[in-house]
Amino acid sequence: MPSAPPSAPPARTPRFGANYTPSQGWFHHWLDFDIDAVRADLDAVAALGLDHVRVFPIWPYFQPNRTLIRPRAVEQLVRLADAAAERGLDVNVDGLQGHLSSFDFLPAWTQTWHRRNIFTDPDVVAGQAAYLRTLAAALADRPNFIGMTIGNEVNQFSAGPHPDPDRITPEQADAWLRTVLAACEEGAPGKLHLHAEYDAAWYQDDQPFTPAQAARLGAVTAVHSWVFNGTAQRHGRTGAATRTHAAYLIELSKAWADDPRRPVWLQEVGAPAPLIPAEHAAAFTEETIAAALDCQDLWGVTWWCSHDVSRDLADFPELEYSLGLLTNDGRVKPAGSAIARVAKEWRGRTHDPAPRTTAVVADDAVERRSACAPGGAVFEAFARLVADGVRPAVVLAGRVADTGYLAARGITSVVRPEEVR
User: For the chain, what are the domain ranges?
Assistant: First the structure.
């Protein structure tokens, strides 16, 4: 039986923020926490007109032993959140770090002599739940606390190309997500708790974290858009697929959601050099955000990242040093000026774009999700339609005949990838 279309959510003002990368010491700043340095960084972020930051406790720094969650580290996180509030910034906290900028941060009690699967070992999962619950509870009464993100792209630990993955099944991934999300809700009831994967969840056939989990578990869907995944290599800096990759991920996520009007958070997106040369970063920033804002139900955009990584720090991939909206010494870069202009333009405006009436059909089978990846039939059909001036959506094959669902999304025609020329 066709589903009845739900009522549309009220139009709202989109959020604009930055993933906070401290200018002094990168995320190692937790080891030498300096609240004055944090305040200076947050002053610079607030001066761009942004309204929130996403922050990253380093898991082994905060929970060095399974039964030791360091009170001083938790107190420092709360001080950071309070400093953000003083500057009009809301805070989302990523718990399990996890993985950041090519480095893995896993506590010793999960590694080598204590090697245990971080997704299935009962003691490890109980320790994670206690940690997430503790961080959430410490911030639960702060009005500027948005909620918890489980961790940063933790799905990269579950399959290749990680060199030492903790392999699991989709069923085990589902059970783990439900457990850790419940822990966040116990710590801070009613806040916006979510999980966030890198794009293998949408594109990689054998990835155990699935599109359905991303689009149905947690308060909102998070997407992380990076065009170094083959998009810019294949389509170039100015290609339609490159300029609208973030919008494509938003629309792909909407295809997998049970709720046709589920909010989607573009939680990470950046302008990676040399695929996006520095002189074109501002244009890429504006084009990417404009395309995302042309998607319905966008919760907000959080740019990666606030500050460049200092050249004093070694062994980062080259592109990681220059992704900031601000330089390491606090100067605003062209991308920072661009997002400041966008944030100013949208301040107080409601976001209610027209529906996307034409949808590309994607396979429901997760073992064939590579068709949605760069070079895949669905991805390339979407890009060709964009280049032809169409505003496409994506719909799963199993919902093509569901008239109620199509009406809820405003879809009036569907097209198979092979039909797009």
Answer: 15-346, 358-419
